[in-house]
Design goal:
- The structure holds two protein chains of two kinds.
- By secondary structure, chain A is α/β, with parallel strands linked by helices.
- Chain A has nine helices and twelve strands.
- Chain A has helices spanning about 5-10, 30-35, 55-60, 80-90, 100-110, 125-130, 170-175, 230-240, 245-255, and strands spanning about 15-20, 45, 65-70, 95, 115-120, 135, 140-145, 150-160, 165, 180-190, 205, 210-215.
- In chain A, the strands form two sheets. In chain A, strands 1, 2, 3, 4, 8, 9, 10, 11 and 12 form a nine-stranded mixed beta sheet that branches.
- The two termini of chain A are about 25 Å apart.
- Chain B is built from seven helices and twelve strands.
- The radius of gyration of chain B is 17 Å and the shape is globular.
- By secondary structure, chain B is of the alpha/beta class.
- In chain B, strand 4 and strand 5 (about 90-95) form a beta hairpin.
- Chain B has a single domain (about 5-220), classed as Glutaconate Coenzyme A-transferase (3-Layer(aba) Sandwich).
- Chain B has a seven-stranded mixed beta sheet, with helices on both faces. Chain B has a three-stranded mixed beta sheet with strand order 5-4-9, with no helix packed on it. Chain B has a two-stranded antiparallel ribbon with strand order 6-7.
- Helices cover about 30% and strands about 20% of the residues of chain B.
Chain lengths: ~270, ~220
């Protein structure tokens, strides 16, 4: 039987360092919901390079111990309410970063080197908190980041085990750097996308892909460019109700925990 | 009543600040800077605007790191930054203030120091937002200007102090600003939008902004 989002969630252990994309970049929301249903604990999230609704849901549901990210935001819908409260109440640890430092850390892992230099960031107060960042002349050396798991959603998977993410190349970088990469996809493609000159540049090859599962509309309520847009109404409703713990719990009950209601409206 | 919205006025001020700019990038959640850039582009078609989070036809094909790589090379000359707090030394804080947590530093720590013209933008003009010293400096740099919902400041790099250039309405800006700054004896009013600017904003600019900032376009221009 073909793998489902639930099966991918089953491959992610408690305490894993889990790399997730921002809300604008192909988030495997169906797996995020499955992680909440399986009551995963102690996740360490890495924002590549920022996080949004996926992280807010996992944090609110008590699945997260630590977050390394350049920001957590719901974009136009405002602050990420569960993240904000969890930090203010000291329920999770935050390793604040800045976008190019996260990219550089992943690129260091891609290249198999210990550090990568980043220009410009030396005068930020982040330097006081990030003891693992080393000032060296005009650059700052940031250590390699090696996620246990990179998780994202793709437009297609093919019979050869490749997945297609198009221009969202930060997902390729995350996959190259991570020990394991788990991918949900919209549609199955016959054959091997690497044989197609037009598709190949948007592919993350099977070399990096640990497991895939079909999940139509699997990024909902976030978007899949060219297939469906962000469900702005849903995200902004979430931003409002999740301001209180009770509202968040109602959201979980309605959209994630109730069997049969956990998938997206078509 | 004003015949234009405050957001429209601010977008016009931004468009005027972009005189001479070649390539502006727009980061997260910046509909007013985006509107200002689109307005400028109509006047100067050679001016390039890149939206980091553009939903369709996103200009970056190497993922979100490409913005930072471009900036590091000097291929982007204009960027916009805000902050929960902005202080009199032009440091910005996007992390925490008064016991409250904010989203985080984003790319500001880097962009502020590598971009030639950073425009600081914060709609709220209050002692809460404009403080003597930020609690946490996400980023430090030398901005081109600071634009708020009430005033426009220039930055004096040699003195490391802001100078009040104009106010959008009559009022006591010093009383509402937490940091000290220089000001001329007579502070002029910020010129209002022209008829032409307004008609461009409400036509092609509104349409362009709505594609990525639907809530904003709905609120300001009633576009669904």
């Amino acid at each position: 039987m073909a793998a489902r989002a639930e099966d991918l969630a089953g491959l992610i252990p408690d305490g894993a360092l889990l790399a997730l994309p921002p809300d604008y970049s192909l988030v495997a929301m169906e797996v995020v919901r499955a992680l909440i249903r399986k009551k995963i604990k102690g996740l360490r999230l890495l924002g590549v390079p920022i996080l949004g609704m996926s992280a807010d849901l996992l944090i609110g549901a008590g699945c997260v111990a630590e977050v390394e990210t350049s920001a957590v935001s719901l974009g136009e819908a405002g602050l990420a309410p569960r993240f904000t409260e969890a930090v203010e109440k000291n329920l999770i640890k935050v390793k604040d970063a800045t976008c190019p430092a996260v990219h550089a850390g992943l690129q260091a892992s891609e290249k198999g080197v210990s550090y990568m230099p980043v220009a410009g960031i030396g005068s930020s107060d982040l330097m006081k908190e990030r003891k693992d960042w080393v000032r060296q002349g005009e650059v700052v050396l940031v250590p390699a980041i090696k996620p246990d798991v990179a998780l994202f959603h793709a437009r297609w998977a093919d019979e050869a085990g490749n997945v297609w993410v198009g221009r969202r190349r930060e997902l390729a970088t995350a996959a190259h750097a991570a020990k394991q990469t788990l991918v949900t996809y919209e549609e199955q493609k016959a054959g091997d996308m690497l044989e197609d000159e037009l598709l190949a540049p948007g592919v993350v090859s099977s070399l990096y892909v640990t497991a895939t599962a079909k999940a139509p509309r699997g990024a909902w309520p976030l978007g899949m460019p060219g297939v469906y847009g962000v469900d702005d109404m849903h995200v902004s409703q979430y931003a409002k109700v999740a301001k209180t713990l009770e509202g968040f719990q109602r959201y979980l009950d309605e959209w994630i925990l109730t069997p049969g209601k956990s998938t997206s409206p078509a | 009543m004003d015949p234009y919205a405050r957001e429209e006025h601010l977008a016009c001020v931004i468009a005027r600040l972009l005189d001479g700019a070649r390539h502006a990038a727009i980061g997260a959640s910046s509909p007013i800077p985006a509107a200002g850039c689109f307005l400028r582009k109509i006047v100067d078609p050679g001016f390039r605007v890149s939206l980091q989070q553009r939903r369709a036809a996103n200009p970056f094909t190497e993922g979100s790191r490409e913005l930072f790589d471009l900036a590091g090379q000097g291929r982007i000359d204009t960027f916009f930054l805000g902050g929960a707090q902005i202080d009199g030394s032009a440091a910005i804080n996007l992390v925490r203030a008064d016991g409250k947590r904010f989203p985080g530093t984003f790319g500001s720590a880097y962009m502020y120091s590598v971009i030639k013209n950073t425009i600081l933008f914060r709609e709220e003009h209050s002692r809460r937002a404009l403080v003597p010293k930020v609690e946490f400096a996400s980023a430090r740099g030398d901005p081109k200007a600071l634009l708020t919902g009430k005033a426009l400041f220039s930055w004096q790099k040699d003195k490391r102090r802001f100078r009040l250039e104009s106010t959008h309405e009559k009022g006591d800006i010093r009383a509402e600003t937490g940091f000290d700054f220089d000001a001329p004896a007579d502070v002029p009013l910020t010129p209002p939008p022209t008829e032409e600017e307004l008609s461009l904003l409400r036509g092609p600019v509104a349409k362009a902004v709505a594609a990525d900032y639907p809530d904003f376009a709905k609120r300001v221009w009633g576009i669904n």
